Amino acid sequence: MPTIHFKGKTFVQNHHLAVKYHQLVPKKELSLTDKVSLHDNLIIQGDNLKALKALLPTYAGKVKCIYIDVPYNTGNENWVYNDNVNSPMIQEWLGKAVDIEDLTRHDKWLCMTMPRLKLLRELLSEDGVIFISCDDNELANLRVLLNEIFGENNFYSQVIVRANSRGQTYNQIAKTHEYLIVYTKNPETELFELEKDSESNDLNLNDEIGAFNVRELRNRNPKFGKHNRPNLFYPIYINPKSSDKDGFCLVSLTESKEFSEIVEPFNSQMKESCWRWGKDKVTKNVSPKTTTSNLVAKKKNNGSYGIYEKYRKTTFKPKSIWDDNSFLNETGTIELRELGLENQFDFPKPKSLVK
């Protein structure tokens, strides 16, 4: 697997092991509960490398979700490298702001990021997921570094987030997006789907079981048909007199006096296609009652019948482009202003993005 090489890597790749364990000290005067406990929700103030190491004894392998917002290393943030690594070269970096003129700014960023990512991986549970905000400045370096630490097979997604509405107009192309990089600890990890709301809910039909919608059983991919999926090309028979209030009819794999209308998987150009299901799955999803059958037929506008699968999912998979206004960085700025925390944090992310 390709690996990334940068100045200082040999000195920092095991630095997370050398970091001393620090005890977390509760501040009763800052607590929002009467009884101060380190096993409650925590806000930790201090160097994040030391904080991660302090969490390790209690939370190693137990954290299911991690979100980090790393410095984007634009050259205008003036972040400072402060990890006290035993190396003369790195010792010269300490306490110096990293700006656009710094020819080693990518090396410094990688040296800062690597030990933290290694500790974060140790904190993740086996079904844990990490989300990382970044932009184009370090995207390529970050992806290779994450492949090295988490494994290429654990890359889950690279989400595009519309972060501002006007774009950075000093570029030839006005940039309006950032990224959310998603990695898992185990390639078998599955994320929860999102609950459909009033706008995204497409279950606009009802039967005795509940709300549903339909999708066509014919495979619409033109690459598949009778020529390469012969077991998925077969007739389905319809009872045209069994139509319910929504026009759905019963179907069967067996022709009879009632089930007399035949449907085969042809596309609109009358070319042979195929079904998405085999006969065994069709058999399990047909029922003598229209209201409880998961497979039904309905007449199309051209007079022919289509075969449809009922689906009842109340959740959906998020897409890889997030462009809702609630994800804009300016939304995060407004939210902090409403809390009286304006100018306390640079480039805050909105709550909806983190949620």
Short description:
The protein is α+β, with helices and mostly antiparallel strands. The chain is 22% helix and 20% strand.
Description of the structure:
- The chain has 355 residues and is of the alpha+beta class.
- The protein folds into 2 domains: 9-193 and 318-323, Rossmann fold (3-Layer(aba) Sandwich); 205-311, no CATH class.
- Helices cover 22% and strands 20% of the residues.
- The chain contains 9 helices and 14 strands.
- Strand 11 (295-299) and strand 12 (305-311) form a beta hairpin.
- Helix 5 runs parallel beside helix 6 (139-150).
Low-confidence stretches: none
What does the overall shape look like? Answer: elongated
Strand line-up in the sheet with most strands: 6-7-12-11-9-8-10
- The sequence of SSEs as H and E is HHHEHHEHEEEEEEEEHEEEEHH
**Helix content class:** 10-25%
CATH architecture of the largest domain: 3-Layer(aba) Sandwich
The CATH topology label of the largest domain is: Rossmann fold
In terms of DSSP E residues, the strand content is 15-25%
Main sheet characteristics? 7 strands, antiparallel
Q: Based on helices, strands and strand pairing, what is the structural class?
A: alpha+beta
Give the distance, in angstroms, between the N- and C-terminal Cα atoms. Answer: 33 Å
